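Supplementary notes for students who missed Thursday's class. We covered one full example, reproduced here. Read the sequence, then the structure, then the short commentary at the end.
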Amino acid sequence: MATLIGDSRLSWAQARLRLGMANVGFWVLTAVLALAAVWAGPSASAASEGARWLLMVGLFALAQAPFDLVGGWWLPRTYHRAVEPFGAWLSQWARGVAVHSAVWSVAGLALLLAQARGGWLGAMAVGTAGMAAVVALQGPLTELLSGRSLRPVPDRLHPMLARAGLDPARVKLLAAPEPSFVGGWVGLPGRDTLIVPGTWLGLPDSVWVTQLTRRAQARARGWRAHGLASALVFNVVGLGLALWMVPSEAIGTAGGLLVVSATFTLWSFLGLLTLPSRARPAVAAVDAAAVAAGLPRTTLHAALPILDARQEDEPTRPDVVEAIFHPVPSLSSRLDAPTTPLPARVPYRIARNTLTLSWVCLGGLSRAVHCNAGLPTLWAIPPGD
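Structure (token representation):
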């Protein structure tokens, strides 16, 4: 698998995309087979359903491990983007898997009990509350996944924060070594915190001015909240469908949870195909809003290539590839974007938000996509604009 994905003729972005396609394809096929198996003859063993679910969580982690190894260590090393020795990556990966598995275990057991006692509505209430909890705890989850603590930003950034209209008390630095980590807003709207990457400390001021202004505009205009709400609605619909698909004889069993997980994985796959087309205009709108707020277009254009090089490093890409796989427009698209009237609402980061929220819906794709496979720091806050 590694040789196929890491073909020397491929760029970093193309190799990552091939990994994501293989990883997502694996879980989509597994979901189809799991649904067929459960619907063919669901079995129940009430005394051990919790233990059976925990076993399934362990099997998921085991099956995902080869993709994580390729995406988190082999590809970064092959393309000279590895920033830590293997032992450090392995330790972080093990910690990340433990955190993700713990959330899956608790979420699954909660849904198991809720559906057994409260039916479809009870499970929906638990799942929706769980997604809200993930948003509220997104910052602490990122700390756990990265093994780094949030800390105040350096004093030298305070003038830039002030110009962007940001309160330094609500902006925190995370010194994670992963270059693709771009941070973002975390927490429930109204109580949110902006996380910025420590790896940016050595970058030009144009990067800081650009991103702080963009993030401030995304929040102030309500676009971050709208993106969260839109992602929540998408996932709630998917969870409702997944719970409805559970056969009556499998309700309250680990087999029923497998149906929920498999169905929601297929729903997430539908989101991967359709939501990027809604997310890309939001990125362009935030760029335009930053310029409307006083950010010089030359400053924006100076910062974007630096950020692109640290993430996809793919200034241009075929239209069909961008349409299906990328919620962030290519660098060339952003640099050439025309100035248009700002929309009232855009679903900022909707595609990536659905991945984070899918943790409690037992979706299998939240850490299998090309942008974060094998990179635990990016599991709770996937990379973006």
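Commentary. The longest strand covers residues 193-197. The chain has 14 helices and four strands. If anything here is unclear, bring it to office hours.
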